[in-house]
Amino acid sequence: MSTDHFVPSDFEPPTSLVTEAFRLEPLGPQHNEADHAAWSSSIEHIRATPGYPDGSWPPVEGMSLEANLADLRRHAADFTARKGFTFTVMDPDEGEVIGCVYLYPPEAEGHDVTVQSWVRADRAGLDAPLAEALESWIIAEWPWERPDRCGR
Predict the structure, then answer these.
(1) What is the pLDDT of residues 96-144, one digit of tens each?
(2) In terms of CATH, what superfamily is 3-148?
(3) I need a surface site. Which of 87, 101, 144, 146 has the fewest CB within 10 A?
(4) What CA–CA distance (Å, rounded) separates 104 from 118?
(5) Any bridge partners for residue 17, and if so which?
């Protein structure tokens, strides 16, 4: 699929994934403060997570809430335009942001989606379960057959 047709025009993208350990919902501006707090508290952990090999995100120096809000608006616009799908990872009981999932067109040949995820450092034990749940979810609910799981 080209990036012009990342998903088929008649495909209805899922808007949630719920497990006992976390739930996903589309990332948007309403998550700004909690998202900013989540990633900025875990910069070193995220940079060490498979899928972030270039070391450019998250920025070591952080970013302002305003810049983060612009980023969240861009991800929400991508979701609406079906050019990429970003989900916030929420604690199912406490309702706090504990990570993020990105489903975007692939950069690597031989794949039809790039799957990246991170969780806060204090939830590092969820890294592997989240990646495994994403693999099953993509197979069951999404139209892709060759995900690039970024080393997972």
Answers:
(1) 999 999 999 998 899 999 999 999 999 999 999 999 999 999 999 999 9
(2) Gcn5-related N-acetyltransferase (GNAT) (3.40.630.30)
(3) 146
(4) 15
(5) 24
CB 23 within 8 A of CB 14: no
Q: Which residue has the tokens 């690597």?
A: 108
Contact, 65 vs 33, CB < 8 A? Answer: yes
- Tell the burial category of 151 from Cβ atoms under 10 Å away from its Cβ (0-12, 13-18, 19+): exposed
**73, two tokens:** 């608006």
What letter does residue 27 receive in the DSSP assignment? -
SS3 85: strand
What is the C-alpha to C-alpha distance for residues 105 and 132, in angstroms, rounded to an integer? 20
Kindly compute the dihedral angle of the four CA atoms of residues 133, 21, 115, 143, in this order, to the nearest 10 degrees: 50
Q: Which residues contact 11 (CB under 8 A, 6 or more apart)?
A: 143
pTM of the model: 0.93
